[in-house]
Predict the 3D structure of the following.
Amino acid sequence: MPRRLIDTLGNTIGHLTDSMTDSIKDKLDDIDKPIIIDIKGITRAGSDCYNAAKDTSELCITTIERAKEMVSFGDEIKSTLSSFGAGGGGVNADTFQTIQDLVDGDQVKAATALAADMDKIALECVDKSVKMIESMERGVDALPDFVESRVENKMDAAAEKGARDGDPEFPNVDQDVRELEERIREVDSVNLFTVMKSGVHAFTSLAQKGDLVKTLFTTIKDFAGTVLEVTESIRNYEVGSMMGKWRDLVKDLWRVLRLSSLIKAFAQAIGRLIKFIIKLFKKASEKLGQIWKALAHAKDIMADCVHYVMDAMKLCDDAKDRSTQLVDTSEEIQGHLENISSLRKSGIASIRDLVDGDEIRLAIELATSLDDILLTCIGAIVKMVKKVIAGVKSLPDVLKEGVPKDAGKKEDDPPPANSTRDVQVLEKCRGDIEGADAVGVINASKEGICRVKEEVEICQDMIIKSRGFATDCNGTIESFLGEWDLENAMSNLLQMYRLASLGEMIEQWASEAKKLVKAIIAVIITARDKIKNIDFIPHEIEEKVSELIPDEIEDKVGDLAAGVGRLFKRG
């Protein structure tokens, strides 16, 4: 090749090289200053976002544990209340206090406080996500135009450029909020018929939503962990080591911006849920706690009534035994009076031995003790009835909704006892004895004692009836203190009304029996005193007896009368 041509090519290549170098130098000179400024902004944005993500992750770790506690608490109450439902087997009345403590005690207060703490943390997470978003937006703005064109709506761009397969949609908790609102309405209008179901629904929702909150916080923690990984490289960005990796940097910035927006959305959803969770906790504690407290109080009242009923049953048994003895004693006295009424005058004097004898004294003692027993029984039952009625009145209105006006009554309940006629009959007998003369008093006393025997048997029937009421009271209390479920809740509560009604019947029947006993005592004492205080005139009695008794048995009268006197006289 000619030398001239070679020189010409050399000069041309030299000029091209100088031109390319100058062009590259000029281009680098053009972007040198912006790159230096942007790199500082990008790394600063990465550091700010990294710190916010780290704080968010730590907040989530703490909150996830708290959410687990809330879920566990909700499950505990749900499990307890669920036993009321079909197939659950019910719960014993002894657990009412436990349930009350669960729904409005320290645990629910602690759970409400946990929810309030989570609400604050959710707000903090929102604030942290906003800081992350602002940091990444600054980072995107720091990119030179030749790397990434300026975008006005960066969040929309992040949804497109920063999204990855498998990313969740923004959470939609509308349905969950509606469910919580429905649970709040249920609890607010709760009554005995719905307390179990509403309670189960409420704490089931609280457990479920608490679990959802835990899941959302776990997702936020995962997002924050990814942000930490990505921003670690962004905040350590160096020009020398990352020249030619602009595309990766841009992807990271958009990815972090997308994750930050997801964190914000999830945290806002949590905050919205938590507010309704707190409302439901408070409403459930207020309304359900009121009902369970009332039921626990009612249970205590019913349990306290057991000893009154036991006392009444024992007293009725004692009264029945004494009434049986009184019937037998009255029958013996009646027999003696029948014998005496057939004696001649020589046997009449022995009547004094009869009235001072064991049978009359025993009859008076039995009747008097019977009166005392009935008084004690009535006193115990009156106390019980007052306690139960006060307990019924103290029940909140929501528990009394749907309770019939005649609650406690049954169609086959007997009509009230009425001793008026029997007392009048006995008073007439007493009057007849009081007004009888020396001879007539024997027949009047005989008829009076005969009537006493009949009225004691009527009194005994009243005592037996009262004993039956007391037995029913015991069964009523056992039913109330037994198992409760959805099906028998109202019928069990009505046992409280039934106990009051039965107690009133015992009081009424025992009171009528007591009136009868007092009239019986009056007849016996009148007969004793009348005969004892007769001004016996032998010749007048002799004439009367002579008219009534044949002469052939006259000689035997004295011995028979004397024997009767010895039979009834003490020692």
Notes: The chain has 18 helices and two strands. Strands lie at 91-92, 483-484.
